[in-house]
Amino acid sequence: MTIADIKKTTETKMEQSIAAFKNNLTKIRTGRANPALLDTIHVDYYGSMVPLSQVANVSLMDSRTISVQPWEKGMGAKIEKAIRESDLGLNPASMGDLIRVPMPPMSEERRKEMTKLARTEGENGKIAIRNLRRDANESVKKLVKDKLASEDDQKRAEADVQKLTDKRMTEIDQLVTAKEQEIMAV
């Protein structure tokens, strides 16, 4: 493995970490409705637990309401029960075949809890990025130790990896700040 390979692999893994971090951020509740909020809910479908998205169409009705359209007539009650029993604090209402899930406004205290959660996710993302930096630097040091690269190459590679790390850290900070603003907006 060459230094270029190490850099490329590290960059790819950092991109994947950022993508996972963004995915985790979408699951944090804000004042607005978001269909991704229901991704964690599983419904009893003929004896097996399946994700809600596999038995119904989940979409937005408006900024404060999620609509859930079951694909089978008999699933409405089961979907409603699964949403009600989830720890999201949502109260679905049935309108014929359609299930409306209104988002209750969050209290100031709940908003602060959510911003703390967003910061925690941000810190976890940063830890993942730092671990990737450490692994890359160790791989470069191993190449130098095995006499496959010079110490100058090591210094340059470590500087490049640090630039990648700094860029990703800034990106995480920006995403967390944006999420906090979204949560605190009434």
Task: Please render the helix and strand layout as text.
Blueprint lengths: L2 H24 L15 E4 L2 E4 L4 E7 L2 E6 L5 H10 L7 E3 L2 E5 L5 H38 L5 H34 L2
Helix pairs in contact: 1-3, 1-4, 3-4
Protein name: Ribosome-recycling factor
Pfam families: RRF (PF01765)
Function: Responsible for the release of ribosomes from messenger RNA at the termination of protein biosynthesis. May increase the efficiency of translation by recycling ribosomes from one round of translation to another.
What features would you describe in this structure?
- The chain has four helices and six strands, in the order H-E-E-E-E-H-E-E-H-H.
- The chain is α+β, with helices and mostly antiparallel strands.
- It has two domains: 3-27 and 107-184, Topoisomerase I, Chain A, domain 4; 35-102, Gyrase A, domain 2 (2-Layer Sandwich).
- It has a four-stranded antiparallel beta sheet, with helices on one face. A two-stranded antiparallel ribbon has the order 1-2.
- The radius of gyration is 22 Å and the shape is elongated.
- The termini are far apart.
- The model has no long low-confidence stretch (mean pLDDT 88).
